[in-house]
Protein 1
Amino acid sequence: MTNDTLKLSAEEQFAHELEELKKQDKGERPTNWQLSPKAVVQYLMGGTLPNGFRVTPKYIGNQRLMEIAVATLTTDRALLLYGLPGTAKSWVSEHLSAAISGDSGYIVQGTAGTGEEAVRYGWNYALLLSKGPVPEAIVETPVMRAMKEGRIARIEELTRISSDVQDTLITILSEKIMPIPEINQQVKAVRGFNIIATANNRDKGVNDLSSALKRRFNTVILPVPDSMEEEVEIVRQRVQSYSASVKLPFDHELLKEIDRVVTVFRELRNGVSSDGKTKLKSPSGTLSTAEAISVMNNGISLAYHFGDGTVKAEDLAGSLIGAIVKDPVQDKIVLQEYMETVLKPQDGWKDLYRACRDII
C-alpha cells in the first residue's frame, strides 16, 4: 500500500487509533471481534484514553444510537442503518466493520442491476463447463467470505436491490447458512458473522423490504444533525480529511466558508431563515451534510488549482448552485427567492450573493 492510494479504507486511515484501542481495551470481546463493544463505540464517538491518547470522533451525534447499533451486532439480528441521503450511513457502516472485523472490504453495492449471484455466490463458467458444478468452480461473494471467516459484511443501498434478490438474505440471516444445492452443500456462518445494510427513503426506484426480511433486521435511524454546531463540525472533519488525502492545504479560515455553506443548506432545508424571520421554500433535493462536504471539497480544489489557494465565494458558488438546483425550473425559483430575501440583505454575504447571481 502506497501513499498514492486515492482512498484509504477506515482500518488503514485510522490504524494507529485501532491499534491503541486494542492495547487499552480491557473489555470482553465477542468471538472474532477485534475490540469490545464499548471500545467500538469509543472508536466511533472519540475521546481520550487513560494513557492520554486521543481518539478522533467518526460520528458526531447521539451516542445511544451507536450503542444500539453495536449491541445489535452482538446478537443474531442484522443491522439496518436507515435515513435520508447524506446522514453518514455508509460512513458509520464502514467504521463499524473496521472496528469489529478489522476489514471493511466485505461489501456488496446495491443497485437496480444487482443479481442474486452478487449476494450469494456465482460460478466460474470455464470451470463449470469443464468440470461441472464442483466446489472450486464457485465464485465466493463478500457475504459468503464473511460467513466463512466470522466477519461483518456490508450491503449498501439495500432498497435499491430488487425484492426477489433481497429475499435471498432471509435464509442467511435466520438460519445462518447459505445453501449450495448444485453441489448438495451449505456454508455455515462462523461466530462473529453479521450483516450491516444501509438504505434511504428518498431514492427513486426504492424496493421496500418484505415483512419477513424486516424482521431479521434491527433498524437504527440516523437523523440529520440536530444543531448547526454538530453539522459544521462534521463538515470540518471530512473536509480536513479530504484535504490531507489529496495533499491540499487546509486553511483554518475555511471554517468561515464552511459555516456559510452549512447555514445556506440548513435554512433551505428547514424552510426558514436562521433568525426565524423569513419563511422560505425548500428545494426538491435533500441538501444533506454529505452534499455540503462535496461543495467545500470542490471549492478547495478549484481555489488551489485555478486560484491563489484561498477559497472565495466564486469558488463555492457553482457547486452550491449545483447542489440546490436539481429541478431546473422549480429549484431555480426557490434559489433566486432565497438569494434576494436572505443572502442579499445579509451583512458580509454580498460576495456570495454576487457570485451566485453571476452564475444563475
Protein 2
Amino acid sequence: MTGIGVVVIGRNEGQRLERCLSSLAGRAEQLVYVDSGSTDGSVQMAQARGVEVVSLDMTQPFTAARARNEGFACLQRLLPTMRYVQFVDGDCEVAAHWLSTAQAFLDDHLQVAVVCGRRRERFPQRSIYNLLCDLEWDTPVGQAKACGGDALMRAEAFAALSGFRPDLIAGEEPELCVRLRASGWKVWRLADEMTLHDAGMTRFSQWWQRSLRAGYAFAEGAFLHGAAPERHWQRESRRAWLWGLGIPLLTLLASVLLGGWGLLLLLIYPLQTVRLARRGGRSARENWLQAVFLVLGKFPEMLGQVKFLLNRFGAGKAVLIEYK
C-alpha cells in the first residue's frame, strides 16, 4: 500500500515471526524488521524473504522503544514518501484488512495521529494467563488515551515528537500518546480486527513478571507526566501502593493493637474481588478470573513501583523486565 511502512521488532520469535512477516507480505510499501540479538535464525529468515533487517547494537541498553525508533529511522531512509507507519511486535500476525482499514480512517480523520484495533490472543484456551491477556486487550472503542505496541501512526506526528523515549523499558506507547495528545492530536481505537498475538504464557511466574513490569511502567509514567492536567497513571500507581502495601501494613498494625481481630481487615481483598466480578460484562468464568488476578496483581505492581524508585533515586540500573 502506497505511503505505508511497517516496523516489526523481535528476538528469537521463530515461527511467530514467520507468521508475522507472511501476514504483511504485499500489504505495505516497505517492511523493516528490527532484530535484538536473535540466535534462532530470525535475521536470515527475514532476509530470505526480502525484508530489510536492522540488527541492533546489543552493547547498548536494549528497549523496545529504541528498536522501534531505529526501525522508523530506517524506513525514513528507504521510503521518504512514507505517510503512515505501522508498528507491530514480532509475535503478532496482522489481520488481512487492517492496514487498508486503518489508513482509510486516518485519511478521513486528519486530527487523529494514532489508530489501533482489536488485538486478540491466538491461544486463549491454553492457559488462564493467555486468556487474561485477551481480556485485557478488549478496550473500549472510540477516542482513547493510549495505544499498545501495535498501531498505525502518522509518520509526521511521530517524527515531530522524536518518536518513543528510547530509555523507557516499559510503557513507551502510552507515554508517546500523552505527548501526542498534548500537541493536539487524537488517539483512536477501532472495533476492527488488528493483530493476533501469541503471548505464550503458561506459568504463574510469567504473569507475575509481566505484572511487575506494568507496575514499573505505572511508576515511571506517573513520574514523567503525573502532574495536572494529565495525571498520567497516578491512579494506577496509588492503587498499587494501597492494595499491595498499604492494606497489609494496616492489617499488621491492627493485629498488634487488636490481636487476631485485626486480621479481619484482610477480608477487604475477597470483597473487592466480588465487587469487580459482579461489575464484569463477560461470562461468569471470565469475570471471576479477571477479578481475582486484578486484585492479586496489585502485589507485583507494587514491587514494580519499588523497583522504579530504587532505580531512579538509588543505585539501581534500569534493566529490561521480560516474561518470556
Protein 3
Amino acid sequence: MLFLLLRIMCAPLAVLLGTLAQRRFGHAIGGLVVGLPLVYLPFLWLISLQYGLSFAHAMTVSLLLAASAEVALLWSFAALARRVSSASALGGALGAFALIATAVQTLHASIFLGAVLAIASFTIALRWWPRTPIATFHNGKSRLSLRLAVSTIFTVALISLAGRLGASLSGVLDAIPLTSLMMALFTNHEHGAAASSQFLRGVTRGSFSYVASMIVLAEMLRTGHVLEAFGASLGIALLVQLAIQSWSSFPSLRQRLTTLSRPPRLMQAHYRRMYDFLS
C-alpha cells in the first residue's frame, strides 16, 4: 500500500514543481523542470522494489529507446497547436509517437543506438523548433488543483497497466510524456499556443538529462546495487542539465563581456586620432 501511494505521488509532485516554476520563472523554465527525470527515477526505483531489478532494467531500456518517439510527440504538438485545436494537436502528436516508437522497436536497437537516436532527435527538434512569439505567464490563471487531479488519474491508470503488459510494453507506454502533455494542454488552454510551445521546448531541453540518467541507470542496474544506480543516475542528470544551461548562457555572457570590453565610440575616435598623429 505504501509503494502504491508513493508511486501515485510522483507525477503530481512533478506537476506541482513545474507549475510553480512556470509561475515564478516562465513557461520555458517550467518545462525544463518537468523535462528532468523527476518522475521516472522515483517511479523506476519503486518498480525495482516491487517487481525486481530485471523488470526495472528492461523497463529502463524501453524508456530510453522510446525517447526519440517522445521528442516527436513534443515537437508535433508544438507545431500543430498553432494551426489546429488542442484535441487535433493531441491526436497528431500521439500518432507521431506511435509511428516513431513502432519504428524504433522494429529496429531492435541497442542501448547505445537508442541513446544516439534520442540525442540526435532532441538536437534536431531544438534546432528547428516551431517559431512562436514570446509568451508571458499570467499569475492566477493556472488551475493547479485540476492539474494535480488529472496527473493523479493518469498515474493510477499507468500503475494498473504496468504489471499486466510486461516490462518492455510498459516502458514504451510510460515513455509517453503524459505529465508534459497534460501540462502543455492546460498551458495552451490558459495562455495560448505560444506559451505551450515554450513550455514543450523547455521539456525538450531538459530531456538530455533524462537520456543520460536512463543510460547510467540501465548499465548500473546490472550490478545489483540499487541505491548506487539511482544515486548515480540522479547525479549525472543534474550534471548534464548544468552543462546544458552553462552552454546556453555562454553566448549571451560572451556578448556581454565583449560589450564591456569594447571602448565607447568617443574613445575609439580619440584612439584613432592619436594613431594617425603618431604615424
